[in-house]
Amino acid sequence: MKEKEIVKKLNDKIIQYKYDLLQFKKIFWGDSQEYRNYLIKESSIDFFRHINGLFWDRLVLSISKLTDKYEAGSNKNISIDYVIYLAEKKKMNCSEKIKVLYGQCFSEVKHIRKYRSKFVAHQDFNSAFKSDLSVNIGDVEKAFSKIENIMNIFHLEYEGVQWSFNLDGYKDANSLMYFIEQALIYEYFKEKRNDYEKDMIEEIEFKRSIKY
User: Fold this and answer.
1) Domain coordinates in residue numbering, the chain
2) DSSP label of 202
3) Of 185, 180, 187, whose CA–CA distance to 43 is shortest?
4) Could you tell me if 146 and 100 are in contact, meaning their C-beta atoms sit under 8 angstroms apart?
5) 72, β-bridge pairs
6) Which region holds residue 160: left if phi is over 0, alpha if psi is between -120 and 50, else beta?
7) What's the CA gap between 112 and 60, in Å, rounded?
8) What are the mean pLDDT values of the chain's consecutive 10-residue runs (212 residues total)?
9) Nearest 5°: phi and psi at 75?
10) Which end of the chain is flanked by fewer CB atoms within 10 Å, N or C?
11) What is the pTM of this model?
């Protein structure tokens, strides 16, 4: 595989993983968080608790994957260490700078990588019963910020441009929270008017209006 294809694949992965972070924040760490927590509690709290866990495991895995060493034994990984390797190979001016930044980043995410090993990739026996190891949203955001910084220093010399790794979705988590809100509003006024026949008529009309 050509080097530009590998760099593009790495860019795409960072965008994908960063999108996961943005969606997670829109549901669980967005504006008016107390109100959003109310919407979650009143609609599907068990489901959202499950989604929270799935998102969190994915975010921890994402940081771990992106900070893996490019060469690990006989295996090779598509990670930010690849651009360190590439910059050294091409004798780029930014080589030493991004190498130092990667070393700092790798050191700062050690607890995330350890958390991945103990709680996500495995079910460590001792840690399951007693562990003070924890990761918070600030740790994940800080890691992404450092990864993006390394990539943009590299890209500025490699391609002459910087990248934006933020992808704002259409009909994303914000849309989900909006429709939950609308459903709860509708339920509230249905209960107030207490007209079962009208409720059924509206439900039938709505279903008939849908064009599959």
Assistant:
1) 3-167, 170-212
2) H
3) 180
4) no
5) 75
6) left
7) 6
8) 92 95 88 87 94 95 96 92 96 96 96 93 82 88 96 95 83 90 91 88 88 83
9) -100, 155
10) C
11) 0.87
